[in-house]
Specification:
heterodimer, A: about 140 residues, Arc Repressor Mutant, subunit A, two-stranded antiparallel sheet, 2 strands, globular, B: alpha/beta, Rossmann fold, six-stranded mixed sheet
């Protein structure tokens, strides 16, 4: 049997208005979507993760339950929680995160007082450079 | 699990509670807070059965049986340890009093407590941890924790906290604690109860509380939200507000800042001292 993997770090931010379960859930989702956790990987047990993060075990129960409902995790009674890979769900989850970081970027840029043209210009400049570099590497 | 019903209690002429009611469900981790002297520890002692209410009652779940006190662990600053006994003698005494067959020493194994040491030779923190391990050996359904936790160092506090998490994940233990300094227990707490003049002034789940209490940094006080307390600086002020609602965010002139539990509680308490 595979050992529980732990290739990602979760930190809980006390000052955040984002509930702790939401913070933990996002971190695990991100680890799955970015491929750091793979299909069939075992997640830490509720007790282990609660101890590691020093949070109430009920919080972790809530996280695992929601991840299961959202289709990211499978529970096997008595054996623990495992990463489930559902391509369609993954695409949607990835898109959600993409939308969110894009939104964050835009609101920050607008906050700094930059215009529509500034933002579009900066993005395409950076994007051109990145894709050219990838092209060169190939 | 714990129902406080129409409770009244006074110290002589000093009225602490009058017709006080509170309900704590099984498995919940509850934090009771408020300014000094508001009756937090008194309430805990009433729950523990150390003090008796003048009126009203405290009812425990039926599963605690006819003698609920045997299933209630009370960790207080009044440690019921005999100074002249050794650690192992204290364990034996505890076992015979509570009729338990084995003592779980996993907690004191982490510390430097030796079985042949006398209680009086232990530090305050060691005594607290030892006391806790005695209490846990009775497998309590309810754990009442007074402010004693302040007297133990960061390492022992962490062990204590880990033990609490272990217990919580094994079974539904109900925890009521009284504390004013919480950053290490912050994520264990599920519900916060603020006492004010013998009454429950705030009773919120932790996630709701964090969404509703904010700090607004601004030159002028917000018009639409009640201010709990404020700190004035030369050019601006910090306003602690409750209850904040997301819909109000756009109308607010100034920066809205999220807070941790310690800041939230001091915002409430600060308002009372003002």
């Amino acid at each position: 049997m595979k050992e529980p993997r732990e290739f990602f770090n979760i930190t809980v931010e006390a000052k955040s208005a984002l509930p702790v379960y939401e913070q933990v859930k996002r971190a695990i989702k991100l680890a799955i979507l970015s491929g750091r956790l793979e299909e069939g990987d075992q997640l830490m047990s509720i007790r282990e993760l609660a101890l590691k993060l020093q949070v109430n075990p009920n919080t972790i129960i809530k996280v695992y339950y929601q991840l299961e409902v959202e289709g990211f995790v499978n529970s096997r009674p008595g054996a623990g929680y495992y990463v489930k890979f559902d391509r369609k769900k993954m695409q949607r989850g990835k898109w959600e995160i993409f939308e969110k970081v894009t939104g964050d970027y835009i609101s920050k840029a607008l906050d700094l007082g930059y215009s529509y043209e500034d933002i579009v210009g900066e993005i395409s400049k950076k994007l051109n450079r990145e894709t050219q570099e990838i092209g060169r590497e190939k | 699990m714990i129902t406080v019903k129409d409770l009244s209690f006074s110290y002589g002429k000093l009225k602490v509670f009058e017709n006080f009611n509170l309900d704590i469900p099984e498995g919940q981790v509850c934090l009771i807070t408020g300014i000094n002297g508001v009756g937090k520890s008194t309430l805990l002692r009433l729950m523990a059965g150390v003090l008796r209410p003048a009126k009203g009652e405290i009812i425990f779940d039926e599963k605690l049986g006819d003698d609920p006190k045997r299933k209630i662990g009370f960790i207080s600053d009044i440690l019921s340890l005999y100074e002249s006994l050794t650690v192992s003698q204290s364990i034996e005494l505890h076992k015979s009093v509570y009729g338990i067959s084995k003592f779980d020493d996993s907690l004191i194994r982490h510390t430097k407590i030796g079985h042949s040491q006398k209680i009086k030779e232990l530090s305050t923190g060691q005594k607290t941890i030892f006391h806790l391990s005695l209490i846990l050996s009775i497998e309590p359904e309810v754990l009442l924790i007074d402010e004693i936790i302040h007297s133990i160092d960061a390492y022992l506090r962490r062990i204590f906290l880990e033990q609490l998490i272990q217990l919580q994940s094994q079974r539904k233990i109900t925890v009521v604690m009284v504390n004013l300094n919480f950053h290490d227990i912050e994520h264990i707490v599920e519900r916060v109860i603020l006492l004010k003049k013998g009454e429950v002034a705030v009773d919120e789940k932790i996630d709701g509380l964090k969404a509703k209490v904010k700090k607004i940094i601004s030159t002028s006080p917000p018009q639409t939200i009640p201010i709990l307390s404020q700190i004035d600086f030369s050019g601006h002020s910090e306003f602690f507000v409750y209850p904040f609602q997301e819909e109000l965010r756009n109308q607010i002139r100034g920066e809205v800042v999220d807070l941790n539990l310690t800041e939230i509680v001091s915002a409430f308490i600060g308002g009372e001292y003002a």
